[in-house]
Amino acid sequence: MERNNNFLRKQYMRFLFPVMLSIMGGTINTLIDSAFLSVRLGADAMASVNLAMPAYLVLCTLGSLFGSGSSILASRALGRENALEANDNLHKGLFGCIVTGAFLTLLGMTCSQGIAGVLAQNGEFTSNVQAYIFWLFAGSIPSMAIYFPVYFLQLEARIKETNVMTAVTLISNLVLDYLFLYTIPMGPAGAALATSLSMLLACSYGFTMLFIRKGNFDFDPKKLNLKGSLLLIRTGSPMAVGNLVDAVRMFALNSLILKYLGGSSVAVWTVLNAVSELSMMITSGVPQTAAMMTGLYYSAKENGSIRILTKLQVQVGSVLLLAFSAVVLVLNYPIKLLYSLEDNVALPLFFLCVSLFPDLINSILARHFSITEHIRLSHVITFLRRLFCPVYFCASMIFSGGDVWLFLPLGNFFAVVVIWLVTGYISGKSPDDSHKLSRYLLLDDYLEKEHKILDFSVKADDQEICEAAERIREFCEINDANVKLTVRLGMAIEELLVILKGRIKDESGFDLRAFMSDNVIGVRIRSTGDDFNPFSPEYEDDEDMMGVKMIEKLAVDVTQSHALGMNTIHIFFES
Fold this sequence. Notes:
alpha+beta, Heat Shock Protein 90, 3 domains, globular
C-alpha cells in the first residue's frame, strides 16, 4: 500500500482533453481564418492574419490577466469554503475585462490604420492588416471575456459545457468565414468579423451555462466593481506576461522575416505559426490541466504529488506530441496546397515538430514555478522561450546565411539548457540543511527528510481501509502522539473512510496523507465524487456517522472543500 499515481492520473486525464479542446478553441480561429483567406484570396491575404497576430495577442494578454487572476483567487476562496468571496472575485475580474475591452474597441477601431502601418511596416500588406484588425478590435470584449467561462466552468468541474464552447467556436467560425468570404465577399475584414462573432457566441453560451445552473457562481450587476483589482492583476500576471511576450515576439519575427526574406517566407512563417498555435493545445494544455492541482498540492506541501504530476505531464505530453508531429509531417504536402504555398514546407515543419518537445519541458517548468512561488524564475523561462531565444536565433540564422527555420529547435533547446543551469545554481545556493531545495523543481522536502509525513494510496476496499487506519496509527506512534488519541483516531478514520467509500463515483479510491508539524497531527483524505461534507449539521442525528462524531470531539479543526471534482477533508489533532 504505497503511493501510486492512479488517483492523480485519473483526475488529470479527466480534465486533460477538455482543457486541450478549450485551448484549441481559442487558437484555431486564426488558423481557420488563414486557411480560408489563402484558398479564397491567396497567400498575401493569408499573411495579413499573421502580421495582425500581435494585436490579437494583446487581447489575449488582457483577457488572461483578468480571467486567470480572478479564477485563481476564486479557487483559493473556495478552498476556504467562502463561496461569496469566490463569486465577488469573478465579478471584479469581469468588470475589469468589460471596461478594458470597451476602451480597446474604441481605440482599435479609430486607430486601426496607424496600428496596421506599424504591424505591416507600411508595406504591401498594410491594407489587408488594417481591414482585419478593425473587426478584430470590434470584438475585443468577447475575445477577452472568453477566458472567464472557460476557467470557471473548469473550476466547477463542468467538462461538457467547456467542450460545447469549443464546438460552438469552431463550427460558428467555419460557417461565418464561408459566409463572409464567399456569400458576402468581405476579404480579411470578413475573416476577422467571423472570429469576433464566434467568440461572442461561445461567450454567450459559456456564461449562460455558468450562471443558469446552481453552483458557486451567479451573476449580480451590483457586484461589478474594481475593489481589490491590484491583487487580482498581480495574481494573473504570469499568464498575461506570457501572452504579452508572445505579442512582442510575433512583431519582432514578422519584422525580421518580412524585411530580410520577403513575402514568400512570410507565407511559410504564417503556416508554421498556425501549426504552432494548434500545437499549443498540447504544449500549453498539458501544464494548464495540472496547474490548479499543483496549486492545491503545493499549498498542502504535498511534494510527492507534485513530482508524480510533473512526471505525468512529461509522459503524456511527449506521447501526444509524437502523434501530433507524425500527423503534421505526413500531411506536409496537403498543408502546402491548403495554404497555396509555392515553397516546400516539409523541412520547416520538421524543425517545428522537433522544437515542440523542449518547448513542452519549458512550458511545464514555467507553469510549475509560477505556482510554487518562484515567480521570477517563471518570468525568466517565459522571456527565454518566447522572446529572446527565438528572436536571437532567427536573426543569427538570417545574418549567417543558415536555414532560418532552424531557429525554432535551437531556441527551445538553448532555453532548456539555461534553465537546467539556473535551477542547479538556485538549488546549490539554498541552505545546506533539511530545507535545501531539490534539483530541477526546487521543492523543500523538509517534512519528508524529517520523516514527519506519510503519503499513500488506498483502494475503495474494506480490507485496504482497515490497513490504512492501521498505518495512520503506526505513524502517530512513531511521532510520539498521545496513546489514547492514537487508538481512537485509527478507529474514527476507518469509519470515516467507509462512509466516504459510498460516495466515490469511480474506482480511483483515496489519496491519504498524515503529517506531523508543530505538535499537530494532520490527516488529509482526498477522493472523487460530488460535494460531500460529513461534518455538516444535517448529518448530526445520523446514527451511521458515529466515527464522524468521534472525530469532531478529538479534532481541534476540521475543514472540507470541493474543487476540480475532488472532495478534500483535512482533520487536525493536538499530538
